[in-house]
Amino acid sequence: MTTDVHQLDDGAWISVNDSREVNVSDLWLLARSDFCGCETTDFLAEGFVKVGVDYPDIQARIAGQCIACGESGVTDWLTVGRVVDPESGEFYGVVHESVHFPEKRTRLAHPEE
Amino acid sequence: MPSKVEKWKDEVYGNEIREHLMEFAEKGWDAIPEDEHDAWFERFKWWGLYHQRSGQESYFMMRIGTPNGVIKPGQLEVIGEVAKEYATGPVDNPEFGEAYCDWTTRQSIQLHWIKLEDIPEIFEKLEAVGLGTQQACGDSWRNIVGCPVAGKDKHEHVDAWPVAEDLHETFKGNDDYSNLPRKWKVAIAGCDEGCGQGDINDLAFEPAEKDGELGFNVRIGGGLSRKEPRLARDIDVWVPPEQAADVAHGMSALFRDHGDREDRFNARIKFLMDEWGPEKMRSVLQDDYVDFELETAGEDMRDQYSYNTGSQDGHNDHVGIHEQKDGNYYVGLNVLVGRMGADDVLELAELADEYGSGEVRLTQRQNIIVTDVPEENLDEFTSEPLLENYSPDPSPFMRGSIACTGTEYCSLSIVETKNRQVRYARWLKDNVELPEDHKDFHIHLSGCTASCAQPQIADVSLRGMKTRKDGEPVEALDIGLGGGLGDDPRFADWVEMRVPADEVPGAIKNLVNNFKEAREGGETFRDFVEDRDEETLAEMVDPEETDYHDPYMHNTKMTWYPYAEDDDMQASPAPTNGQGEPLPSDD
């Protein structure tokens, strides 16, 4: 089946196959990011702005701020989890406290369209 | 390309959602197909039902829209009964007990822990007394707000209540406007104090005189949400009361047709106003959406506005005892953070009946007003024990407190709010003294940038954040200062960011003391803030730990319910069946 991903409730959470999987208000550690000048961005997720699938990754661009320096904005694409088997649709979230590497994407996936 | 939500709305939306809702309710939670959860929960909002946050699946917040905050005789008792019978969850709230009503900043009512299976019975009880949840949430006309004492107020020039009621009747369930690009918030007021808060609404009718006739000037495009606050802008239109609905038809049709349906973050009319400006807004309204010549704006009364101006004169809220124009009195009671236990609601319903007409009204400051109290009943009414907790003469820190729902139930919030603000208010009352001439001091706590507690228009604005303390993530608040409404409305300046939540009371104490020391003459707090730069103000806000204790410093959003003994997400009983028993999990 197709993996269905969207953000809902003003970007409060990411739904994967009609299940609430990733919420705002968590802290994410971002490395090698140009989000702010900090070596590692201690990023508070305040809202999911865009979501997409780059199989098997579920990705999102997140609005928020670095709680160390105060810089706010929207991240590049971050992998927030994976759906390894599209048939089962089971979602495996990443550990947000681990270090993540946001990346600029060359293509944008809109699985629902 | 239209958003996913637009696709769902195209399939089923508006009045027709009800029959599906009733069918699901009859069959039970499991009847909602798992792969249609998101679509149905989005649609249920139109009928005032908001699926509670992660960990509380199958429970809903129910919002009852009471236009202008008017709760007619007989209705409050039903609201209290419904709360007591149905709005109880698996765990009590340590401050408010097992069942309670929230009075909101849009003069509505919110109940929590509502089970899908109970909705038909609840609707029946509410509708039997003329109450309803239709369009209380969702992309349509929301509850109309206004001066809560419309029709009673001595400061009133136009009685806006019949106009508000007419707009409510006209636009509730109206298929022409049931599917708008986003929410549509309308304010109408006829008094000269500015308590309609029109400046922060999508469409505002404000009292104005034109050629000796009283009516309304029209403003468009206000709102506080996200980090994009806007004040409504004057489109140079005046309408007599009997044409207000025509302009409302035109404006909401304009929004329906021109609002952004591709990007929900850009959908509110404030963004269309950014793009078009007031002149184009007016000309499109005139050319395409009304069939009469619009009058230019009349002379408004904004220079007399006192509500939430920080002026310390006139009405900064509706708490206290005030004479109505018919010689009776209204008694505004302070409800700390707008939350009232169901038993207290039932008792107040009896008291309103005994001492007044039985009518009560909700304010945009989360308080409640008992109207129509004859002078001879005032002493006895105000001596009632219930009014010790819901005082008409509370400490400024109690009366000035507003808080949104927060992480207790809300998906978007970053921090716990209501219980925290209760603790803040109590601590500030015991530990901080305002200058003698400051009876009003507004502190609004919003859990996130959605701004449901309207933080940008408070003396002290608090907004949910996170920070690290001793290396550990803790709940924190950004602190803003000097916001307010009036003739010269102003949004708060955010001067101190990411203050650990347990250091905020100390910060406010230091701020007030610094203000008392540095103010010149009779300078009000708002003028004081306006006259100083951010750096100076930031120095005056000096966060520090005190004997204030905050039990919610941990990540309350990671819990299934922040006050449960075992609050771990895995300990959640949700989803449950109609009896509140956990349903078997697929795992």
TrEMBL record, chain A:
Annotated ranges, domain DUF8134: 1-107
InterPro entries, alphabetized: DUF8134 (IPR058447)
Pfam families documented for this protein: DUF8134
Protein name: DUF8134 domain-containing protein
Organism name: Haloarcula amylolytica JCM 13557
UniProtKB/TrEMBL annotation, chain B:
Entry keyword Ribosomal protein: no
GO MF entries: 4 iron, 4 sulfur cluster binding; heme binding; metal ion binding; oxidoreductase activity
Database matches in InterPro entries: NIR_SIR_4Fe-4S (IPR051329), NiRdtase/SiRdtase_haem-b_fer (IPR005117), Nit/Sulf_reduc_fer-like_dom_sf (IPR036136), NO2/SO3_Rdtase_4Fe4S_dom (IPR006067), NO2/SO3_Rdtase_4Fe4S_sf (IPR045854), NO2/SO3_Rdtase_FeS/sirohaem_BS (IPR006066)
Keywords associated with the record: 4Fe-4S, Heme, Iron, Iron-sulfur, Metal-binding, Oxidoreductase
Gene3D superfamilies: 3.90.480.20, Sulfite Reductase Hemoprotein, domain 1
Region (Disordered): 564-587
Keyword Chaperone found: no
Domain of life per record: Archaea
Occurrences of domain Nitrite/sulphite reductase 4Fe-4S (ranges): 137-287, 398-542
UniProt domain Nitrite/Sulfite reductase ferredoxin-like: residue ranges: 56-91, 95-129, 322-384
Family, as annotated: Belongs to the nitrite and sulfite reductase 4Fe-4S domain family.
Protein name, as recorded: Ferredoxin-nitrite reductase
